[in-house]
Amino acid sequence: GGGRGGGAARPKGTGAAAPARADGTATPIPTPAHRPEFLAYRILYQAVHARHGEGLALLRTLGTLRPEDAAAPAVRHALAARAALAAGDAPRFAALRARAPGLGAALMDLAVPGLRYDALCAACKAFKPGVAGRDLARMLGFVRRPEMGEGAGGEGGGGAEPQSDPLPGCSAARYVGEHEAQDEERGLASCLAWLEECGAVTGVDVEGAVFLDCKASSGRLARPADKEAVAHGDANLDIGDFMKGMGM
Questions:
Q1: Residues 185/123, Cβ–Cβ less than 8 Å
Q2: Could you tell me which of 94, 143, 162, 190 has the fewest CB atoms within 10 Å of its CB?
Q3: What are 26-82's pLDDT values in tens digits?
């Protein structure tokens, strides 16, 4: 018979059912197979925040990497991205961002604005009198280069194992983000708009091509203001939202 109260007895050894998707199939639960993926996320997070208190944590993470973890494609990609970020190698970082497996690009995007600005300052010191706008747009990752390819995979161990299911809680594992490289026309336009925000001086050569005037730009550059930043650093605590919530 059934258990007390007329309810059907639950078979021993079974736990709560896995949450179901809209189509009725079970949502995948993280398993040891996900370890390299989330280890890669940890490395990326600590790398992009290394200057803000995560530097020692990053060293501890790197010091405890097991050989089998370091050999995983997602972890190899994260280690390559960390090295590119530490070296200030904007072209390499942009190429790795284009290949970021899973949701790695979401973390890498946090470092893109600062890395681009530092690369712009370096270009103004290194190139005189100027540099072609199209070359600069490619270097800074605004324009898609052939070696970037499409999606994850390839150079630097930048491909994760194929995912038959999206990550738990995610409808899709592919992240686009605001710093995705574009085709040449749109990417160049985005680059020129960003240069204007930085205070850079551009010109047009005799062939009608736009170039960055490095000499005129030196001493004028300023890091663009974060349009979404608030004084306390957390947009969720904006005073306007707080007053509305209080009915004031």
A1: no
A2: 162
A3: 555 555 668 899 999 999 999 999 988 899 999 999 999 999 999 999 999 999 999
pLDDT of residue 114: 95
What are the φ and ψ backbone dihedral angles of 106, each rounded to 5 degrees?
-65, -40
Dihedral of CA atoms 212, 215, 220, 221 in degrees, nearest 10, equals 50
220: tokens are 């004028």
- What span, in angstroms and rounded, lies between the C-alpha atoms of 174 and 156? 19
Residue type, 97: R
Check residue 96 and give its pLDDT.
95
HEC-encoded secondary structure of 36-86 = HHHHHHHHHHHHHCHHHCCHHHHHHHHHCCCHHHHCCHHHHHHHHHHHHHH
Burial of 121 (0-12, 13-18, 19+ CB in 10 A): middle
Backbone torsions φ then ψ of 204, nearest 5 degrees: -125, 130
Domain boundaries, the chain: 31-87, 111-152+179-224
Tell whether omega for the bond before 129 is within 30 degrees of 0, i.e. cis.
Answer: yes
